[in-house]
## 1
Amino acid sequence: MGRTSPTYRRFLEGRRDQWGDYRRALRHDATQDFDSVFAYAEQYADAAGYLNRSDPTTALLLSMVIGLEAERRQLESRVAKLEETEETDATLDG
C-alpha cells in the first residue's frame, strides 16, 4: 500500500463508510460494539500496512480478531485474579 494504492488507513475509512448503512441498522449497544471492533482495526493499522496486499480486507479482519483476543485475555486474567481473591477470602472465613 502506498503510492500506487491507497494507504491502509484510507482503506479503513472507506470500508467504514461502506458499512455505514449496516452500522446505522444495528441496535445502540451493537453500534458501540461495531465501533470498538473497528477501533481494533485502527489500532493495528501500522502492522496491517506492511502486508501490501491488493485486498487489505484480510488485514482488517485479522486486526479485529487480534484486538478481540487481547481483550479476552485481559478479561480472563481479571476473572482469575477475582477467583483467587474469592478463594482466599473463603479460606480465611472458613
Note: The chain has a mean pLDDT of 89.
## 2
Amino acid sequence: MNHSAHPSVKTTSTYPESRKALFPTYGPPEEAFTRGEGCYLFKEGESEGYLDFFAGIAVNALGHSHPELVSVLQEQAGKLWHVSNALRVPQGEELAQRLAGIAGLDRVFFGNSGTEAVECGLKMMRRFHFDHGRPERDRIIGVNHAFHGRTHGGICAAGNPEHTKGFIGKDERFDHVAFNDLPALEAAITDHTAGIIIETVQGEGGIFPARTDYLKSVRELCDKHGILLMLDEVQCGVGRTGKFFAFEHYGVQPDVVASAKGLGGGYPVGACIASKAVSDSMVIGTHGSTYGGGPMAMAVASKVVDIIDDAEFMAHVTTS
C-alpha cells in the first residue's frame, strides 16, 4: 500500500454543481473518497492513501473498515435491520448494562447522535426537578467555548453566538460562565438552576481539559445546591483519553453522561446514560427515538465496546 507523504486535499470557495441539491451548511469540499482502510482514505482507482486526520470528526475511533466491525455489521444486516422501540432489542439491553456499568450509572437511552444524547440529558435534568415539585428549577448552566451539537438545546447549552444567531429566543433558560472558573460558576447558581453541563475535555478550537480541582469542586457545588451534573463525553469519551470515559481520570461521578461519536465506530449511535434517581423521571411518553437503539447500531456499538473496553487495548492507547 502506498501512502502519500504530502497529500493534497483540495477545497473550493464555491459549491460545485454536483452539490447544488444539498443545503450549503458545510464548507464546500472538492475531494471525494471511495474507500477507507485503517487511518487512510483512498480515491477511486488510486492506490495512494491519504492520512485521515479528521477521523470522521472524531468518530472513526477504530479506523476505517475495521474488519470486526464490518463482520458484525454484515452479519446483523442479514438478520434484522429495524423493529422500533415498540419491541425488544436484546443487543441494546445488554449494551445498556455494559455502558451503565462502565459509567457508574444505571440506565441508558439510545439515540443516533451526540446532540440527541445531549438533548435527552437536558430534558431529563429539567424533568427531574419538575417531578420533585421544583418546576421553577429550569435553568441550565453551560460554559463558554463548549460544543454540544447543532440541535436547539445543543446550541443553547453551548451559547456560541455564531451558532445561536437567528435561532433562539430572548431567554431559553440557559446561563453561561467561563470554563474552569469555579467562582464564576458558583455565582451563576440560583434557586432556578436545574443542572450544569460541561465537556470533561473541550474540543472546540483546541483541546482544553477540565482541571481536576475544578471538576471535583463542581460536583461538590451540585451536591450542596441539589442540582445535577451532566458531562458531555461525546468527543472525549470511548477510550480517547486512555480510559473509556474521560471523567474516570478525575474521580468524579456525574449524574448524566452523553456519549456518541466513537461509540459506533462510524455507525450512527448516541447514548444518554444516567442514574436511576434521575432517569426515573423519563417515563413512557416523555422521550423517544424512532431509530435509536436499533439492531444494527446496537450490534456495531457492542463490538466497539468489546474492543475498546479492554485493558490491553487501553494500555496501547496510553503508551503509543
Note: The mean pLDDT is 94.
## 3
Amino acid sequence: MDTTKEHADSDRIVVGVDGSVASMAALRRGARIAEALGVRLEAITVWQYPLEFGGYVTSEWSPETDARAVLTESAQKVFGGPPPEWFLPVVSEGSAAQVLIDASKGAEMLIVGSRGHGGFVGLLLGSVSARCAEYAHCPVLVMHNADRETAQPTAIGAVA
C-alpha cells in the first residue's frame, strides 16, 4: 500500500459548491479551515444533463461550462481575486451527492451547504447534504444560509 499517496489525499478539505448562498458559506468556511490547517481546499461543482434532454443537447448550451463558471465566480467572490495555490477547483459530471461522497474518501472533512438550488424550501437539509451526512467517509460540516438566524455550521459524523 502506498501510504505517501494516502497521506497526501487526506491533507485536504472537500467543499461542494453550486453557487447558492449556503454553498458560498461552505466555501468561505472551508477556505478558513484549509488555510489554518495548511491543507488543500478541493472545491467541487457537479453537473449533469437535465433528464428532459435524455443526454442529448441540440444547442450550444453546455452544463459543464456553466458549472465551471459557477465555480470560478464563487472562488473569486470568496478569495477576492485569483484563488491561492492550495485551492483545487474540480468540475465533475454525475450525481452531486455521489460525487461528493466519493471525494470524501480520505479527506479531513467534507463541507456542504444545507440547501442548494432546488428542492423544497424550509427543509433543514437538502437531499445532497442529507445523503452526504449519512454516507460520507469523513466528518461532515453543514453550513446554513447566511440569512438564517444562525449561520453557524452543524457538524455531522465523526471518525471512529
Note: The first strand starts at residue 12 and ends at 16.
## 4
Amino acid sequence: MTDANDPDSSDDADSDSNSKVVRVLQRYELVGLGDELVEYWTGEATERKSLRELADYFNRELLARVLRDASVDTLDGEQANLYRLLTDEGVSSGAAVQATNRLEQHGIDVDQLTADFVSRQAIHTYLTSYRDVSYSSSDDDPVETETTNVRRLRRRMTTIVESKIERLRTTGRITLGAFNVLIDVRVLCEDCGAQYQVTELFDRGGCECTTDSSDE
C-alpha cells in the first residue's frame, strides 16, 4: 500500500519544470483536472478543498481514468473503496492483495498506478510553482498577495527566457556572450500618461492623477 499523502515521497520534490502532477496529467490525458485543482484551492469553486483533499481528489480521478481505460465496470462507491484499499495503511494486507489482484486481472499495472498517486506536497508545488497561484484567506492583504504573485511570475518568466536563450546559444542558433534577462512590466495610465512598474503601482495605491470622472 502507498500513503499518497506522504510528504517524503521522492517524486514529490518537484521543480516547476519537472512537476509530478504535470507528468501524470499529461501521461493519462486528464484534461481539465489541473484547472479544477486551481479552482478548488483558491476558492473559485463552490467549495474550497485543502491540499490533502486535493491530493485525494486527484488520485481518485486518476484511478477512475485507469479503470475506464481498462473497461472495468464498478458499482456506486466501489471506486472510492478501491482507492482506500490501495492507499490506507489501516487496511489489512489480505484486502489490499485482493484489490490488487482484481485490478491486475484487467491488465492494470498497480505498481505504476500507485507510483503515480501524488501527495499534498506535490499538489502544493504544482499550484504555487507551476500554476503560480496562492490561497489567501479573507484576513490577508490582497495588495500584498498580488504583489507576491506578480514577483513570482516575473521570476518564472526570467527563468524561462534565460533557459530558451541558453538552449539556442548552446546549439549554435544564436551568438551571445554573458547576458542577463530583465523583465520590466509596466502599466500605462491612459488618463494622464503616467507609467509605473506593476509592483510600484500596487505600493502607491494606484495612479495619483485626478480625472474628470473622479471629480464628479
Note: The beta strands are 186-188, 195-197.
